[in-house]
Amino acid sequence: MAQKVKLSTIAEALGLSTATVSLALRDSPLVAESTRERIKEEARVSGYIYNRRAASLRTSKSGIIGVCVSDIMNPFFGEILKAIENELDRHRQTFVLCNHYDQLSKQRAFVDTMLQLGADGLIMSPAIGTPAPDIHLAEQNDLPVTLIARTVEGCGVTSFSGDDSYGMRLAVTHLIDKGYRRIAMVGGTDLTSTGRERERGYREALAEAGIEYRPDWRLPGPRSRHSGFDAVAGFLRLPERPDAVACFSDLVALGFMYGLAREGLRPGVDIAVTGYDDIDEAAIAMPSLTTVANGQSEVGRRAAAALLARLNGAPAVESVELITPQIKVRQSTEGL
Amino acid sequence: MAQKVKLSTIAEALGLSTATVSLALRDSPLVAESTRERIKEEARVSGYIYNRRAASLRTSKSGIIGVCVSDIMNPFFGEILKAIENELDRHRQTFVLCNHYDQLSKQRAFVDTMLQLGADGLIMSPAIGTPAPDIHLAEQNDLPVTLIARTVEGCGVTSFSGDDSYGMRLAVTHLIDKGYRRIAMVGGTDLTSTGRERERGYREALAEAGIEYRPDWRLPGPRSRHSGFDAVAGFLRLPERPDAVACFSDLVALGFMYGLAREGLRPGVDIAVTGYDDIDEAAIAMPSLTTVANGQSEVGRRAAAALLARLNGAPAVESVELITPQIKVRQSTEGL
DNA sequence: CTGAAAGCGCTTACAG
DNA sequence: CTGAAAGCGCTTACAG
Fold it and tell me: Where's the HTH lacI-type domain (chains A, B) (predicted)?
């Protein structure tokens, strides 16, 4: 690279001012058509690169949106992220992704970085234990926040998520309708709103059907494929064995089904299994997995749209927007 | 927010200059211990937020590293990304993630954004069809590039990837050792170096064993779980059916095994299957999947380290660093 | 050990 | 329709 090309390089080459060049490159109608074309051509041939830091320093808009979730590898977030990406792409916002792995320190480091870079907004699925002031900090520094999948009490902003208790009630009620009465629930933690809501749905469905809740059939914890697989050992050690399992998520359910198969039990035949999320794999798994589609892409789309509205001046509102989930019945509950 | 706190706000409050405050906050030994402490305390209580755009404009270092791969949802990249994240975290670099979905336009938009933001470096798995000049453009504008998983001829930079032809040779040779002679290969495309190399390994292993390569048993294309599942249909229509399948990746293999099971065929018993990548799921799948561990975390770690070396002045070198893969024998090839 | 001043590369009123 | 000038918030020689 010879010499860095900047606005003034172009201005000098053309005998114009940097003001005119700046306006022309951003298609201002103030600049004469012919001037604009000469400028754009010169920018092109000289290999000019727009310096966003300089512009952003001046305008205090950066065109950056931060997105932070516990783990982007989780297909559940994958679909949400794709929807967000779509929505933001259309508004020419750059989006910066980050995992917090449910570590508050990682999440804080990320929010800090976004603040320092002057990001325009933040979409996040708050890490376990996120206190409301963490979100106020961002908001008070002109960084509007929208929450997804989980919410934080007193955060003062909008969160978008599936109606988890209703969704889990759908799954468990489906099992009951199928004739199952001995229904366990595997996975999830009451440290997250998602975990609490899904467990609530499980209990409500049982209560509605007049089935007693058995604490020993509630196996909390697993939230990944691997831990779902591992949970089978504990399940098989139960003194009285359930004949159906409502899993916290599809990943847990898929891992759990692998684990059952490993022990010679046929998921969907010997033990009914339901998942939650309706990830792509659910439909092709063997057996295919009965699950709850919780509208991830709607969550992502609406969260992004809400954030964009905030950027355009809409006020912050604390509310929880629930997307209504739907059950997908497949082979894994065909048993009885 | 009352008023934005900046260096000068702190300087005024303390009766110091911005120069001193700037130095103190960055722990310069030039500033007296006691002064530094007063400054840091004032920064803390006033809620000062460091403006990286301004600093970066001045220093032309941004602390940002861009990372771009075809799809972060692919567990293959997931492990690489985790290794990169680890390495970069230790050097306090912010990393910005992006999918290009093998679309050149998306990749270009990302590289452009990184250039505009003054990113310090770029790690990417080049999209199909990436021409060398795309990489030269970045390099010529002070944006050092390191490639992962795939390479581009004439790019002038280092790429890190598994030794794909060797790895696939391991898988196919293993099948041959097990007694299989009718071995198909499913998935991958010759549009990527990865696809070409793995196919080469497949052919070489057959040749070594004196087994003729049959074009109709080479079913290219699938690179995802879903397309692996779909490939079973074509496989079952083959006039002569192979008894073993070497898949392009674990995802393809897992989808393919689901597909076989759906058709009443037992993977690992009726049809042997191998994968590639040794993703987490391979070990717990049912049957567990024989696969090739291609050292993703080493790829990620070394690619990040190489890029950091470039940031510290190391020159660009065109080379392909191959990480030696290892075979993991599991149930899916236990058949005969 | 601390300060005054210039400058990074833009954009934005304001003039003309 | 175009230009001169100020300023965004830092850092970096340079002085003292």
Answer: 5-59
